[in-house]
Design brief:
Layout: H1 16-33, H2 82-85, H3 96-105, E1 134-135, E2 139-140, E3 144-145, H4 156-168, H5 170-185, H6 195-225, E4 231-232, H7 239-247, E5 252-254, E6 260-262, H8 264-277, H9 288-324
Parallel strand pairs: 3-4
Antiparallel strand pairs: 1-2, 5-6
Helix pairs in contact: 4-6, 5-6, 6-8, 7-9, 8-9
């Protein structure tokens, strides 16, 4: 049997009540430290305006069965006067104040120059039905601009590419072939003959007419007179209003400043192309009346093409809408 050591005190057993009080004290300290986890650190590097993450407190040891005690004077946050500690109850939740301050400063969509929100001058995107690159999947529609769109003026390089696209697109060869066959069938120029040899003579002359006119109207003269020869869709108003607007674009076109101007590029360009054609068509058929007739036909063709361009987005949207309806949907 080991002899008892005098002076050694038997450890006091912790009762259930003592354990509960100790757990309550530790829980209180943790809850007081929680708000500091979301505290933002200001530019100065110090945490202010919130309870510090670590709250120093004194837990006295258990002696004689006494419960643990908390020194509540240590709960005062460092650097915060005692008079301001009671005001901490009104501090908003972390992040709430930042959201309330950021809300008034958030940018809002506004209207500029009567245009819808987020649509500004210089935007290439339009509103409503959009123009497509081709009409009926074949006819080139590269020069059409959707309603509500305000793209910047084309550069000379872009105008050159536009004229090239309209001249050498595969549909151009089909169109010239159709008009050449019609001219050969009606014997428009007797000196060119008939049959396949006559068709070939009509074909290269017709292709030269089309290509020559495109480069004068879409590239050379617009670069000289600073005019935009693209077609800007109106997209609103009655049928006749839109028809008149579209047909008048051969006479009126915007300049690089966005103001309407006399379309000298169209009218003069078609005239120059007809003048050049005198050099490769038979002289007997190049009377003043014949040249004027071809010139009027070219202007009328461009006007009718603009009218079709004006209504093409509506036609295309209507066709797509009909195809989007399921064929097996129940009839009403």
């Amino acid at each position: 049997m080991r002899p008892a050591i005098r002076g050694r005190r038997k450890p006091h057993a912790m009762t259930g009540i003592h354990r509960g009080r100790l757990a309550f004290a530790l829980s209180l300290g943790i809850l007081l430290a929680l708000p500091a986890q979301a505290q933002e650190k200001p530019a100065g590097g110090a945490l202010t305006g919130c309870v510090p993450a670590l709250l120093p407190c004194r837990v006295y040891p258990l002696e004689g069965g006494d419960p643990p005690e908390l020194d509540l004077d240590w709960l005062q946050p460092a650097g915060l006067p005692a008079a301001e500690s009671d005001a901490m109850d009104g501090v908003p939740a972390p992040g709430q104040g930042a959201l309330q301050q950021a809300a008034p400063d958030a940018p809002a969509a506004t209207q500029t120059d009567g245009q819808p929100a987020m649509v500004k001058s210089g935007d290439a995107a339009g509103t409503g039905p959009q123009q497509t690159k081709r009409i009926l999947g074949v006819m080139p529609n590269f020069r059409a601009v959707s309603a509500g769109a305000h793209p910047p003026p084309p550069t000379p390089k872009e105008s050159f590419l536009l004229a090239t696209q309209n001249s050498f697109d595969y549909s151009s060869f089909i169109f010239v072939g159709f008009t050449s066959a019609l001219a050969e069938w009606t014997d428009t120029h007797t000196q060119l003959g008939q049959g396949m040899p006559g068709f070939g003579r009509y074909y290269w002359r017709g292709f030269a007419d089309k290509t020559d006119g495109n480069y004068w109207v879409l590239f050379i003269l617009p670069a000289v007179f600073h005019q935009d020869e693209r077609y800007f869709t109106l997209g609103k108003g009655g049928f006749w209003k839109r028809c008149g607007y579209a047909a008048s674009r051969v006479l009126i076109t915007p300049n690089y400043q966005g103001h309407e101007s006399f379309n000298i590029s169209e009218l003069l360009g078609r005239g120059i192309a007809q003048g050049i054609s005198v050099a490769y068509y038979p002289g007997a058929s190049q009377t003043a009346g014949a040249i004027a007739s071809k010139y009027g036909y070219a202007i009328l063709r461009d006007a009718l093409t603009n009218v079709f361009r004006e209504f093409w987005p509506d036609i295309s949207a209507h066709v797509r809408h009909r195809h989007s309806v399921s064929p097996d949907s129940p009839a009403r």
